[in-house]
Design brief:
Blueprint: H1 6-11, E1 17-19, H2 28-36, E2 41-44, H3 51-64, E3 69-75, H4 84-93, E4 98-103, H5 107-115, E5 119-124, H6 127-135, E6 140-144, E7 150-151, H7 159-169, E8 174-177, H8 183-191, E9 197-199, H9 201-204, H10 213-221, E10 227-230, E11 238-241, H11 244-255, H12 261-268, H13 270-279, E12 299-305, E13 308-313
Parallel strand pairs: 1-9, 2-3, 3-4, 4-5, 5-6, 6-8, 8-9
Antiparallel strand pairs: 7-11, 10-11, 12-13
Bound molecules: nicotinamide-adenine-dinucleotide.
């Protein structure tokens, strides 16, 4: 097995690539395609309007792949707070073996899932949070650098620093998350001590991602300067595609006198972001993004590890 790592062994996958949980993207079509290709596909729980819908989505995914796949449960502020416990119960009832958790105060949900013998990959943006998650006996940490799309945390530590600190400080194996979009990145992550990578935005550009073609083209055309950071004022910083709405929202964030989240909520609403993916109107709402700097090549990368050369196909 050319890609044998602690991650591939524990999860029963062929390639140490995890498709990150992505709101309004992580449906069964994408998750099953990634799992069928040898990585770990992930259904995003909160993309489903209710726990009953998540159950149907998991069942759909089981029809599309016989390989392992996971469910992402993200615990962050939401305009309509979800019933996390009910989502977790569906995951358990459907026999999903792997869950990616992320966000604040994950203790009770992680305990519930661990009690059901589920393998947990928990996302952290600092070593302090990773050490706390270790105490919760998570199986893998997903170390998420400042480069990542979506919720970047409040400490802005880039992966070159964070991954080496993780290798020095943690006893739990970890994967690298944030800024990865090709085989060279995977090779770099393995060299820095990770046992795999978490890749999100890159998968948005695949044929299997169930989002509008305009969004895929916008991502391919974008550069590393095309991201905007929003919601720092509310300690929920997000890296988003720098479109008209994100620029307007940034102005509101800077200029708001009241500092009330309600002022910016209409700009960052997930419902509007979802519409971008459905209609293809890039300026209809905000969406998470980092620039994966894609080439036209179908090959994600070729590289050497442990004396062998590999090619990773995209
Ligand atoms: P939403 O419409 O509920 O909220 C839009 C954005 O505002 C989100 O980034 C949310 O975190 C933030 N937000 C909401 N209330 C807030 C508050 N009081 N203070 C500060 N920030 C606040 O979001 P949605 O698109 O319906 O998503 C639902 C949940 O899933 C959110 O918590 C969101 O952050 C999370 N999410 C998950 C993933 C994933 O990969 N699983 C990715 C992105 C977002």
């Amino acid at each position: 097995m050319p890609f044998q790592t602690t991650l591939t062994e524990a999860l029963g996958i062929a390639i140490p690539v995890v498709q990150g949980g992505m709101q309004w993207v992580g449906y069964a079509e994408l998750a099953s395609a990634v799992s069928n290709a040898g990585g770990l596909g992930i259904i995003t729980a909160l993309t489903q309007p209710s726990p009953a819908d998540l159950r149907k989505e998991i069942q759909r995914c089981k029809m599309m792949t016989s390989k392992p796949f996971a469910v992402n449960i993200t615990l962050l502020p939401a305009i309509v707070p979800p019933d996390y416990d009910a989502y977790a119960q569906v995951v358990i009832d459907e026999g999903v073996r792997i869950v990616e958790t992320a966000g604040n105060s994950p203790g009770p949900i992680i305990k519930k899932l661990k009690d059901a013998n589920i393998i947990i990959l928990h996302k952290c943006t600092t070593i302090r949070h990773a050490l706390s998650a270790q105490k919760l006996r998570v199986d893998f940490l997903s170390i998420d650098g400042f480069e990542c799309a979506g919720h970047i945390g409040e400490h802005d530590i880039t992966n070159f620093v964070l991954l080496r600190r993780a290798a020095q400080s943690l006893t739990t194996p970890f994967i690298a998350s944030g800024g990865f979009g090709d085989g060279e990145g995977l090779a770099g992550a393995l060299a820095l001590g990770a046992c795999g990578i978490n890749m999100g935005t890159r998968f948005m550009c695949t044929a299997e991602a169930p989002i509008h073609e305009n969004v895929k083209q916008a991502i391919v055309a974008a550069t590393e300067g095309d991201t905007e950071l929003l919601l720092r004022r509310w300690r929920n910083t997000s890296r988003l595609f720098k479109n008209k709405v994100a620029i307007e929202a940034k102005k509101v964030e800077k200029e708001s006198v009241t500092g009330k989240f309600e002022e910016i909520a209409p700009y960052v609403s997930g419902k509007r972001g979802r519409n971008v993916f459905i209609t293809g109107d890039i300026d209809e709402g905000v969406f998470s993004f980092f620039s994966p700097l894609l080439s036209n090549s179908a090959v994600l990368g070729s590289y050497s590890h442990n004396g062998c050369s590999y090619r990773v196909n995209g």
